[in-house]
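Many introductory courses stop at the sequence. We go one step further.
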Amino acid sequence: MTVRPPSLLEKAALVLGAFQGATPRLTLTEVVRRSGLPRSSVHRILDQLVQLGWLDRDGRDYRLGMRMLELGAMAAHHNRLRRAALPHLHALHEKTGHVVHLAVLDGPEVVYLERLGGVADASVPSRIGGRQPAYCTATGKAILAFGEEALVAEVLRAGLRPRTAYTLTRPGPFRAELARIRERGVAFDREESFRGVACVAAPLRGAGRAIAAVSVCGNGLHRELERLAPVVRGTARAIWASLYGPGRAAAVPRTTAAPPPEPALEPAQMDTMMSWMRFAEWM
C-alpha cells in the first residue's frame, strides 16, 4: 500500500504544530525534530511563514508572529461570543419555532457563527461557517447600519448584485434602508437573499458600533416580522448583557470580525495554528 506524502499545507501545519507547548522559541533543528520533516523542507517553510507574518525570526530562533496571534485572538473572541449567546439563541428558537442565526461581519460578507433549526427548517439555506453577502441579509444590514462608514463603502465597492427581484441594488436606496434600521433598531430581509425566505435581525451593541447580529428566519415569515422584532431585539440585548454586564457601554472593536475585548494571548499560552484549525465547529 502506497503512503501518500504530506501536502504542502499539511507540512506547514506540522511546522506550526511544533510550536505547541510551553516553549515559545525554537531553532531550525528543534522544529525538524518536532515536525519529523526533512531539514530542507522545514527551512523553506519557515522562511515562507516568516515572510507571511505567521512566524518571527530572531537570530537562529523562530517564534509565533503577529498574524498568528491575531487569528488566535479572533478565534477566542468568536468562541467567547458564541458561548455567551447560545443559551439566549436556544430560548429564541424555542419561543419562535424558526431558524435562529448568530452572525459577524467579515469584509462585505456575514459569517454565521451559529445556526439553530431542525430538519423542517431546511428551506433556509444557511449553515454554521457559511457566508452570505451582507447587503441582502438582515444580519448583515443590522451590523452595517451600526458600523463604520468604511464598511458600508467596502460593501458598495463590491457591488449590490441582485439575488432576487427584491434585492436592493442601488447605493441610494441601500443607504436609506440603513438609516431606517438605525431608527427602528432592527433590520428586515423580505426575500432579498432567497425567494420565500424572510428574516428579522437585531445588532449586538452597546452605545457604539455593532459587533455581531442575531436573527430569526423562516420560509413565508413575512407577516410575522413586525411581531418578532421586539423578541429579537430583546435577545440581542440579553446577549450583550451576558458579554459585558447590564448597562455597560463596552469599548467596541474597530472591526466586527476580529479583535476581542480580552487581552491578547502570549505566544507561550497559545496552542498555535493547529488548535486554531481545530476550532472548526463554526467554520
